[in-house]
């Protein structure tokens, strides 16, 4: 999926049909109903996104962007999560016993909440964002609001630029009901034959390659736009000459777009995946959105032909698909966006002298470098690391995992350059990255043609870890330079995703990565690493051990503490371990962006646990696991969330930080995020999230992301390290 659109637009989710829990049936020390519903928790996350769109203090084009993000997030939620629930109902497959409810009951609750949120989403556009845009000189108007001269000018535009690409499809005995592609915008048209009086139905697809919002004019700092479907709807007479237009309405279908490939039963994963991607286009409908003025005859026809239930019909005011607001949000009006932030080069990667060329290898040799994107530049750190390795004649090999990247990525180009110059280059490409499958297949083939050794990981597992290893010859010896990150090697998303990364020349990390890459590309089964925790074999066990150590310390009256930052926390075994830690007196802080199935603040179970969420201009994406460890702090960063798929069905890696300055930096991040003076959302035991963004006097609380950008930009180069 295009990184500028859905997932990577800023606050997207990462969806898998992830219903297989770790077995916790044997734990009788905790209440039976101790988990929040995963699906409702995700909808609560998207509600937090919507609250940003509703906030008048947020710049108006950013509010439009949040409306678009909400819409795109919800599309994907239906395509994967709701589709998974429906599939279980159709196949008679129950949810795991510890979910405690039947799929039908969960689906009913999810549908009710989704209806409520979509109506609130539409109201936010109509009553808040659209008027605010108009006040700022950006007017989204309807055809009826235009004068005769403007309508005439648009009629000419329609005749030249739009009419030739439209394809009305009739529905009659000779023309069966057409296939409606997922997420396409469509016009339902009922026409009457003026000679016979007979009514007919036609479907007209709104072309997706044309701008959704057409600019009418731009005068003296004001702009006006009209939606493409509104313009088309007012020219239906040109498409159906001699017919009377009886009714016309807009509708949109969401389909099940989950992809399932049995890797054990296929000899060629790429071919099997390409076949499954083709099938995905024809998945069954799971949601029908219609404009609220649609007549009952047309709606009845759509419901019957698409075979959807009343619960799956969403009646909404026009315009549908507010994901189209991404185009409006890109308007070049700096006064209506967040203040521009320019990432700085990490002070540890800057040359000592002003006119010297930066040398990433020399900088890493002086000591581990902890990077914090997007506050610190990806281009002058990770990208520079790979590019310098590709050009350096002393580099013998580069090994890298690629989960999501852009097709024109300088990372991919650097790997190609390295291979063409004779270096050994290994790229582990995850072609099963959801909605990026086709793109990943395309550039994986491009890498192969250039001589890169491309592998696709282990059967049955997604390779989600973010790893790069460079082997360099120095003074007759081989030296390892490594990067372990929390985010993808994607220059585009690195500008809007908050992530951490470690650059290190530590020999032990290099040896760990060498063994791990051998496991991923060959048949080696490596069971132990020194500075890494690796899933699926060891990561869960390693984290449970460290949580257990904190629990034992608290029970013995010793200082203890656990702090976790993740995108989502669902895994029952991890949650139960945190409950037991809380009962022993361990203070537990969970900083989560999206889904949280943990109930904080429950007496006798989790009164020592607090949960916070921070959303803003950047997508909080890093994962951090920090433990007091009896006064000798341990902290890990890496790619894994606390979900079943991350711990059991993916290759994930966490790396332990060892530099005291890095441990202090991580600790400071948690202190700031959990501070009552920082704007955030707080979770209560019922699953309700409450936004805390104003102080008692009504003044805005501290925006953590803005503050970090300011502080990191002011960092000065430290003295010689080590």
TrEMBL record:
GO terms for molecular function: polyphosphate kinase activity. Residues 35-141 form the Polyphosphate kinase N-terminal domain. Its EC number is 2.7.4.1. Coiled coil: none annotated. The keyword Aminoacyl-tRNA synthetase does not apply. It is an enzyme of class 2 (transferase). Signal peptide: none annotated. ATP binds at residues 73, 497, 593, 621. It comes from the Bacteria. Pfam families: PP_kinase, PP_kinase_C, PP_kinase_C_1, PP_kinase_N. It catalyses: [phosphate](n) + ATP = [phosphate](n+1) + ADP. PANTHER family: POLYPHOSPHATE KINASE. This is Polyphosphate kinase. It comes from Luethyella okanaganae.
